[in-house]
Amino acid sequence: MKKGFVFDLDGVITDTAKLHFIAWKDLAAMLDIEIDLTFNEQLKGVGRMDSLERILVYGGKEKDFSLAQKETLAEEKNKHYVELLQDLTPQDLLPGFKTFLDSAKKKQVPCAVASASKNAPFILKKLEIFDEFDAIVDPATLTKGKPDPEIFIRAAQAIHITPEEAVGFEDAQAGIEGIKACGMFAVGVETTEPLYQADLRVKRLDELSVDSLLQK
Ligand code: G6P
Ligand code: MG
């Protein structure tokens, strides 16, 4: 029996990967590095500083900047990203997510958000669903990023259940690995790439019934 749900944000609730991409692409261009959408796939679920690191390695410039300079670059990217987020509205919720969330809330299933994004609370407010969640893990308090299960363990704790009692929803392979590593049931939200190890795979969350998931 499952008792609660833990959602990733980008790619599960809304698709902000394209906004991250615009902001990273512009920053990379400033550094004479060209990134494309295929490379962007590697940044999904990866924290801000680690994403910058991957871009610098990709451009062969990982040794060119001090930590302080990298922090400034990451801040610049974030400033641009937050500007792009201003236009977000409930229309930007991924198809099927709200129907599923409403059904979970009606059945009083506790719901948490486990996202590496420090902008998650702001994004959830723009999408007008912030109040629907019982907990949002603060990624600044974590020691390890996905695929480490830490964020999922913390999300389950925050809604007072064990990881084994939770269903986790993810669109990134690293996320599915984190979910499985702590014994949660994993729902993979697939777009283009197949997700390995997921217990269930869907294109959109309204393909799922809350009751049947709770019985897993
Ligand atoms: C999510 C996204 C990543 C992003 C990370 C940090 O995991 O999938 O692309 O880099 O959050 O986001 P932030 O908003 O804190 O820069
Ligand atoms: Mg994601």
Automatic annotation (TrEMBL):
Origin, by domain of life?
Bacteria
Query: Mind telling me which Gene3D superfamilies this protein's record contains?
Result: HAD superfamily/HAD-like (3.40.50.1000), Putative phosphatase, domain 2 (1.10.150.240)
Checking InterPro entries in the record gives: B-phosphoglucomutase_hydrolase, Beta-PGM, HAD-like_sf, HAD-like_SPP, HAD-SF_hydro_IA, HAD_sf, PGP-like_dom2
Looking up Pfam families in the UniProt record yields: Hydrolase
Annotated coiled-coil segments of the chain: none
Q: Which SUPFAM superfamilies does UniProt cross-reference here?
A: HAD-like
| Family of the protein in this entry | Belongs to the HAD-like hydrolase superfamily. CbbY/CbbZ/Gph/YieH family.
PANTHER family per the record? FRUCTOSE-1-PHOSPHATE PHOSPHATASE, GLYCEROL-1-PHOSPHATE PHOSPHOHYDROLASE 1-RELATED
Output this protein's name.
Beta-phosphoglucomutase
Give the organism, scientific name: Tetragenococcus solitarius
